[in-house]
Amino acid sequence: MRRRFGLLSALVVVCACVELLAGRGMSPAVVWDVLGGGGDATERHILLQLRLPRLLVALGAGACLGVAGLILQSALQNPLAGPEVTGVTPGAVLGAVTATALGLAGWESPLAVVVAACVGGCAGATLLWLLAGRGGGDPAQTAVYGVLVSAVLGGVTAMVLLVAPGELGSVVQWLLGTTEGRVWQHWHLLWPWALVWGAAAWLLAGPLTLLRCGDEIAGAAGLSASRARTLALLCAVALTAGAVAAVGALGFVGLLVPHVAVAVFGADLRMTLPGAALVGAAVVCGADAASQLASRLLAVGLDTDRLTLPVGALTTCLGAALLLIVVRRAPGRTF
What we know:
Elements: H1 2-22, H2 28-35, H3 41-75, H4 88-101, H5 110-132, H6 139-163, H7 168-176, H8 184-203, H9 205-212, H10 215-220, H11 225-247, H12 253-265, H13 269-301, H14 311-329
Helix pairs in contact: 1-13, 2-3, 3-8, 3-9, 3-11, 3-12, 3-13, 4-5, 4-6, 4-7, 4-11, 5-6, 5-11, 8-11, 12-13, 13-14
């Protein structure tokens, strides 16, 4: 197990190094020189004020979404659950967009963005729970309701933007999911939030492991399944809200990462939750580096000065492919 954590940590470091080098105009020698205290003012500003906080935000957001997805899949006993398909992420986006449109939140008041995203995420999760709560926990049925809830919340978000079209430029980051333009303010918002709720998630590792085995086994072990599930869902919503407030709606990270983490670290969530944080950090960081490299290649191919491929586009494609694989492998599927 230690070897697996070591290898995964090394992968995160590699992804981080690639992302630092993925931007334009800096060779590895220049990056190394700046990190060692050298370099001119422009190089130091680009690396230390733009690339480094972007890297840290990508790592933190990926860790939050990975842990949130694992919590949701364990608490709901559903391999198809994830922040993106349970109404949590669309609800968090709706909350952030609505608060911004009403002038209650913005980057000048980052805590208000997180609170608004939490409220929206809780509303989305509650709506799904009301619709699918009596479905006997059937994964396919919950996934269908989750897609419907997400579509409805996305439609409401679009209507909010139509009512306040002047806010489109300030909320596009939440709609697409991007690490572009992340600065130290985003990191200072994200890391304490992620640390607190990540610690809370780890404290719930034991109850979540029992919930994965079913409510009957959890009850036989003396666990109040409803109370533990409520606390777990609150933790998942909070982690998702922090990530959404920092980078927007990164599609399907919370669905993809838990399956990888469980395959690597097993079903004991005391080990798998930290593993999911590492996997999520590696996935988002690697996807961000790939999006930067792809943006450079597309800019050259299309002969344009600037072209940015949002990292959310890559994570959505990967996550959608995984969702299709998981659904096809689900027992008792009818399609």
